[in-house]
Specification:
Distance between the termini: 78 Å
Number of strands: 0
Strand content: under 5%
Structural class: mainly alpha
Order of helices and strands: HHHHHH
Helix content: over 70%
Largest sheet: none
Shape: elongated
Oligomer: single chain
Length: 193
Amino acid sequence: MLDNALEVKNLENISESKKPKSYRDQFKEEICSLIEQIELSDLQQQFMKSRWLSQVLWLESRSQQNRNRYYCLRLITIIGGVIVPALVSLNINTDNVQATIGWIAFGLSQAVAISAAVEEFFRYGERYRHYRNTAEAMKIEGWQFFQLSGPYRNSQSHTEVYSDFAQRVESIMQRDVEGYLSEVVKDNEKQKS
């Protein structure tokens, strides 16, 4: 009886370990491993994980979230925009069916209008591209630092250029915040005019 319970527990552990990791978890694990292998102080490694890596993961998450919302709203707009004219052009002589199709066309046209308005208001497409670009800029900076290439190519060690890396990462993040704030200001000016 005890052997069977242990066997079941082992099978559960094996099946759990076979579950594929998400891209995010796999990326985080690989990058943490790389950070731990380069010659930096423990404090600098912790800064890289808590500042650079966490920011990259956050940006990617926001990018995916905005992409999904943008695609969903755009698909509703596109598909509904194609179906509504087809429904309106149907020539059915039965009054009940014609009224039902009219109400369906009306409801669908409202869904299309709402979808287009929500996307225009929240600008999920623009946000997606913004977060994606910033995430990629952060990743590029990280890979160049890990490989001592690009602006770090003339250095002999990661320790030597860590402060440059940290400064460049903060510059990317500052540009991201400034870009976001300038968009908010533009939106406020458009609303006032």
